[in-house]
Amino acid sequence: MNDDAEKSLAMVLRGARQALQAERRPPPQPGPGEVRLRVRACAVCRTDLHLQDGDLPMARWPVVPGHEVVGSVDALGAGVTALRLGQRVGVPWLGGCCGRCRYCLAGQENLCDAPEFTGCTRDGGFATHVVANASFCVPLDKLALDDATAAPLLCAGLIGWRSLRMAGDEARVLGLYGFGAAAHLIAQVAIAQGRRVHAFTRAGDSAAQQHARELGCSWAGDSGQAPPEELDAAILFAPVGALVPLALKAVRKGGRVVCGGIHMSEIPAFPYALLWQERQLVSVANLTRVDAHEFFAALQALPPLQVHTHRYPLQDAERAMDDVRAGRIQGAAVLVPQ
Question: Which of 36, 69, 179, 195 is the most exposed place for a label (fewest CB within 10 A)?
Fold first, then answer.
């Protein structure tokens, strides 16, 4: 690629509560230990909405959002040997860690004291090109999905996987609150593992409920409804704090409620009786590189995932964000540079 002949297009957020702005700029150059990717697809995550809404205090402005990136390596920084030119890789939310704090040293890089986040503290994939830390890229050579279909797996899939693992192998009856990009993927994984999955959606969202049933969920209903049986565990993907008491009420004694989002509205007061009898309320924070390798390895042994995507040109990123925010699509919104 001739850098002088081609400009990069990036959709930039200059601050909280602002609209994305298209910007032409020279393609970014990778530094030591980095690679540059030609972006092939980037999915839109609810975290991108939280970024735009000013809910993420660690955000760097201006910034290019997007952390569900699939691209091909088109430039190598000094010292990069594990990746090759032309290789297809993914770039997830966790874009770097310090490697020195107590959490990194304990194998908990998702809790690093000085992390980097793709599309938040460093530029992400709402662009034609992105620079990423090579050691945090995920090789996708063995993934039998096209670029746009693979993109949602880099966060919706990975966070869903970590949340499912946090729910526990013993959780055979599982509730998923908020049946969007993450839930529709991890429901299929859980069902393939032999679990019974109950899907909870916005009130009256018959399309999402039908989608859940088509994917094999045993039951689908409104979030305010009681499921037909007690849950061993529940995962909350919807960023709605009022769902926490409802989920605690739905799980059995000793059950667990996992909050899978990075941001949530305030959790209302609830009686201690909902938490009593050793019910647990836990959160999932970010992800690790081990999560990524385990998830993509696990997919090789499962039936092919049905990944429902709605594709948008990169220039329509603001419309894609609005559609996700309004719940106008089933599955995941994916930006595809032209």
Answer: 195
In this structure, what CATH number is given to the domain that contains residue 221? 3.40.50.720
Tell me the pLDDT of the chain averaged across its residues.
96
Where is 209: in which H helix or E strand?
Answer: helix 206-214
Q: Name the DSSP class of 312.
A: E
Segment 212-220 shows an average pLDDT of 97
332: which 2 tokens? Answer: 């995941």
Which of 128, 121, 126, 125 is CA-nearest to residue 137? 125
Q: For residue 149, how far is the Cα from the chain centroid?
A: 14
Q: In the chain, how many domains are there?
A: 2
Average pLDDT over residues 201-221: 95
User: Do 19 and 145 sit in the same domain of this protein?
Assistant: yes
Mean pLDDT of 35-53: 97
Domain of residue 77, CATH code: 3.90.180.10
The pTM assigned to this predicted structure is 0.93
Query: Would you tell me how many other CB atoms lie within 10 Å of the CB of residue 31?
Result: 11
Measure the CA dihedral 270/327/172/166, to 10°: -70
Q: In the block, which residue shows the tokens 């039908």? A: 210
Range of the domain at 68: 8-152+308-336
Residue 237 resides in a domain? yes
To the nearest whole percent, how much of the chain has pLDDT over 90? 96
Half-sphere CA count of 238, side-chain side, radius 13 A: 23
The verdict on residue 294 lying in a domain is no
Same domain, 144 and 167: no
Span 78-98, mean pLDDT? 98
User: Do both 314 and 219 map to the same domain?
Assistant: no
